[in-house]
Amino acid sequence: MTTTTRPQSTGSAGDGPQAQRSIRGGSLPRYAPPAVLAVSALVASGALFALGSFHLVTAGLITAALYAVVVGAASATVENSRKAKDRLVTAVVYICFGTAMLPLVSLLATVVLEGITRLDGYFLTVSMNGVTPSMDAGGVYHAIVGTVAITGLAALISIPIGLFTAIYLVEYGRGRLAKAITFFVDVMTGIPSIVAGLFVVALWMALFGPGETNGAAGAVALSVLMIPVVVRSSEEMLRLVPQELREASYALGVPKWLTIVKVVLPTAVAGLTTGIMLALARVIGETAPLVLTAGSSAVAINWNLFNGQMMSLPVFIYSQVRMGGAVNMERAWAAALTLIAIVMLLFLAARLISRLFAPKLGR
After folding, report:
1. By CB neighbour count within 10 A (0-12 exposed, 13-18 middle, 19+ buried), where does 360 fall?
2. Where is the stretch described as Disordered (predicted)?
3. Shared-domain flag, residues 87 and 147
4. Structural domains of the chain, count
């Protein structure tokens, strides 16, 4: 006689959904996180007002800390532990993001509020020629011309050198030479800007004699700082291009140089443009190398990079702050706002260029 053993049930049929609900736990209402955030803000602001030491940044930090603690505790009580950890980590991520954005927003707000009072058409279209420091006149046109000319020549020097170096390292470089180039590029990335200025001063003294300062020397100094950034960023973007695209081009009989021109570079053009713009933003605000190489006393408009001193926006800001006084500080803030606006315009132009030349991905 054969005996059949049935598996014993561990509970009644109604225990299944109940067990699943116990595993999942409840769920906080959708309005709970915003409500917790609002209550945390009210509590933090009220406590600081009561203590007589209210500050927007302090209130924001306390609000964020209270929100993370309360929403984590509420989720752990109503929901399960996994959901509570998820909400807590999400809150911490948003808090870190807000903390990182806070200095940037504060900086932009301060520059805009301080610089907008003097920034107008007159300030942008006249120079400081014939203007004494105490006069409520003059503008920044000569510094804009110098910044555009010096940075443009530095980009003209740096972009081809940096891009071709990156192409060599990714597509051709093997052995000790490639390792040596990578090592020196990494070293140059950390060179202080004042060292680059001193190097160009020594080079110019050896070539043209002492005391020779002009915009071209400043452009060479900026290119020393810009080239390693272009090389590293371009190298990383070129390595992101799938190897399958290169192999498909080789399979069709396309030579390597044409594959690089027609396949690799168009595929990476958006990243390459972003890297180049980051390098430009890195050098356009440099002051120390330009003080040593391009001079700091030019007050007239100078379009010739190879003749005479040339003012730039960072040096103009430095010189105005150094002289002190309410009028000079207003000029410095307005020049800083102008510099930020130029950088933003450059980034917008780079986005348009990368979108125009990027490969079309239509089906």
Report:
1. exposed
2. 1-24
3. no
4. 2
